[in-house]
Amino acid sequence: MADSPGGSGWATEIRDGDLVLILSRDWTEASFNAAELEATQALLAQGTWKSIRFDSTGIGSWGSSLLAFLSSLRGVARLRHVRFDDSGLPAPARQLIQLIPEDVPPMNTPQRHVGVIARLGESVLDAWTEVLSTTALLGQVLLRTYAGLHGRARMRMTDLLQCLTEAGVAALPVVALVNVLVGGIMAFVGAIELRRFGADVYIANLVGVAEVREMAPIMTAIVMSGRTGSAYAAEIATMQGTEELDALRAIGIAVEDYLVLPRVIALSFMMPLLNLYAAAIGILGGFCIAIVMLHISAQTFLEQIGDAVSITEVMLGIVKSIVFGAWIAIAGCRIGLRAGRSSSDVGHAATTASVAGIVGVIVLDAIFALCANSLNI
Amino acid sequence: MTDQRASPKIRVRNLSVGYGEEPVQKAVSFDVKAGSIFAIMGASGTGKSTILRAMIGLLRPTAGDICFDDVNYWSLSAAKREEGGRRFGMLFQGGALWSSMSAAANVALPLQMFTKLNAASIDALVQVKLSLVGLDSGRDSMPSTLSGGMRQRVGLARALSLDPEILFLDEPSAGLDPISAKRFDDLICELRDGFGVTVVMVSHELQSLFGICDDGVFLDAKTKTAIGHGAPQALRDHCTDPTVHAFMTRTIPGAKTAPAPGATDGAR
Asked: Is the ipTM of this complex over 0.85?
């Protein structure tokens, strides 16, 4: 059967003014070709017949591809007012074809075409809505923190403690690794330049000031954004998909209290501590390089650091990291809350949160730099 | 569509399944005839779905054999098993649709992965499958926007996408309203009659069991093995085992009749 020329699997005959399709071969999915559906149209256009009949005595095994062929043929026959006589078909096929509605709507819905200007406008509007809702979430968190101070927020202490551990102790190794390397690299690069001026000693000032003011807060924020901000977004987005958020809302637990508040508090509280730790580790990295490569004595290095780093600069670093922490947590939670319900939405939320966290932190840092400059800090 | 009633489509012998040390079910044996609708019955947590997982290749049995057309499935290499698995269609509980794809894309994916058909042919086949399961609208909707019944239908269309020989259904009518459940049962019968597929379903919905199943096995949680073989209706009418009888007649084991309000089992 399968060797019928052309492989189309059917031939035609005209009997008593009716068109008869003689079906042969196996109608398997693998050999299906939608182009054959077009051929049926051409076939019925050739002449006028009262009805279309079938001869399926030679058919092999068949499946959905035969049904696709038949249902297309039936549609064309209906349009041309040719009677579709299915009595010659195998009985099971007759039964299945009756399950398929006659007027199957076309699958391909036309794509909506949107102009460049409209798309630009849409994205600006979207961005503006996003700014508004993020601000609203920030406001809500502030209000709820205030309520929480009076013991009125529906947040559990265990959740807060878990968030604190997750954003604090658990992050120590990776923060240490990143900062010791950054401190070392800075000392290393600085050493080459400073040695040319015989200003080796000032490597301590370079490492100390840069770590305390800029590098420790920024590097810690970047690590925490990739590590914790995206985790918040992914977790909340998953809860969205499994209707866990709806379950919380349904029993009257505000998601802002229960999920967002502990995370924002935990990260805003832990970031300054991590920042101090990171600065110390970064200076240690620079210290090692200075001693090993530049042969500066440990005492000189420490004295220089003491002179260079003022308490104002330490405070600036701490204030920055509180703001960075709050931003990363709020961005992560907000992105998780507005995520869709599918699995790819979770991945998208995690990526977006991590990128939004890092970009936001750098923008905030630039604002801090401008302010610090005008205040002569 | 040859008649293969002489040798069973699926033969399960002394099957034990479990996670870790403790078996969930042991020494389970049954035959599934080609073209039948076979029920794996039992209370919740007796390991019905675990046996189904072993049959479709998701969980290696701890002992025993599962043969499809006299080929021992778990003695095949992983690659051969995977290849053989394309002859199976599986409808998971609740549909288990891929949530980031539209209904039509869910049905199209197996065709795109395992056939060399062009896009137009795949579209035409997807359309046929979705029409067969009665999904006339919502083909481009995402799974999260579909109702439970529609998700179940899309899941069935996906299970049918490669024209399987054996269709496995895990709790097909769970969570459906009575009318949808009845329609779904009828659909399974029609597809069985039409395509001649063999259906293995896990269920504890009595009405579905009595309505469509012509053979089955009853699993027990206490003895951890099969305690009844036969069509659900035959088990209800003739099985003497008290657990099977209680399950099939919806009574509490040990009670002569359904307990009257306020009455207890005598354990005061």
From this structure: no
Phi, psi of B219 (to 5 degrees): -100, 145
Could you give the 3-state DSSP secondary structure of residue A26? strand
What does residue B24 show for φ and ψ, rounded to 5 degrees?
A: -85, -40
Q: Determine how many CB atoms are found less than 10 A away from the CB of residue A118.
A: 10
pLDDT tens digits along B39-85: 999 888 888 889 998 998 888 999 999 999 888 999 988 888 888 88
* Enclosing domain of residue A61: 5-99
Instruction: Compare all CA atoms of chain A with the CA of B133 and give the residue at the minimum distance.
Output: A99
Structure letter (DSSP) for residue A89: S
- A191 falls within a domain: yes
Q: With contact defined as beta carbons under 8 Å apart, do B258 and B252 qualify? A: yes
The count of other CB atoms within 10 Å of the CB of residue B156 is: 27
Give B222's pLDDT tier (boundaries 50, 70, 90).
confident
Residues B133, B149: Cα–Cα separation, whole Å: 11
Q: Does the CB of A95 have a partner CB in chain B at under 8 Å? A: yes
Q: What is the DSSP letter of B95?
A: B
DSSP state of B92: B
In this predicted structure, what is the pLDDT of residue A110?
A: 54
What pLDDT is stored for residue A330 in this prediction?
95
Distance (Å) from the alpha carbon of A90 to chain B's nearest alpha carbon: 9
CB B200 within 8 A of CB A101: no
Size of interface A-B (CB pairs under 8 A): 98
* Residue A8 three-state SS: coil
End-to-end CA distance of chain A: 90
Domains and CATH numbers, chain B: 36-48+85-249 (3.40.50.300)
pLDDT tens digit sequence for A203-228: 999 999 999 999 999 999 999 999 99
φ and ψ at residue A327, rounded to 5 degrees: -60, -45
CA distance A207 to A287: 8
**pTM assigned to the model:** 0.76
Give CA separation, A372 vs A324, A328, A366, in Å.
Answer: 16, 22, 10
Total structural domains within chain A:
2
pLDDT value at B242 more than 90: no
Cα of A14 to nearest chain B Cα, Å: 28
Instruction: Report if residue A147 sits inside a domain.
Output: no
- What phi and psi values does residue A367 have, to the nearest 5 degrees? -65, -40
CA angle A100, A106, A110 (to 5 degrees): 160
